[in-house]
Each structure stands twice: as structure tokens, then as C-alpha cells.
Amino acid sequence: xxxxxxxxxxxxxxxxxxxxxxxxxxxxxxxxxxxxxxxxxxxxxxxxxxxxxxxxxxxxxxxxxxxxxxxxxxxxxxxxxxxxxxxxxxxxxxxxx
Length: 97
Description:
The protein is mostly helical.
């Protein structure tokens, strides 16, 4: 992504210790992505065209399937509490200039 800075990333991505579990998880995930027959991304072309183009050039089959939030109106209201779009704690301070 053009112009992105390390401080623009969420804290959990800004590791400094190569022995940290999240660092190892990201490394393993990257290695597995290189061996995968396809990659599904929770995104869509109009939102992240530049990033998806970079992925398309590295991986032969990338399938953006978003935005998944549009499907929330198809989920019974009682089940909405069990559905989340983010597994990480939100850090809104990363959006501050």
C-alpha cells in the first residue's frame, strides 16, 4: 500500500521480537498462502484495488468476497451477537492523524 507507515498499522502487527507468537503465526500464514490453491480475502475490488492487484500478481487465484457486512440483514437478530466482523480488539487511535 503506497504511503503506509508502520505507525498506521494496529499494534498487534507492529512486533519487534521474532519469537513473539503473532510474528510466528503471520510467518506460518504467509508460508501457507504461498502453497494454497486459492486465497479468499474479506475485501472487494472497489475498496482495495491496488492491494488486490498486488496479490493477483503474486497468487494466481485470489477471490475477494466482501463486503460480508451486507449479509448481516440475512442473519436472525438473535444470532447477531454471535457474529463479529473483527477478531481483534479495535484500536481507533490508529485512525488519528
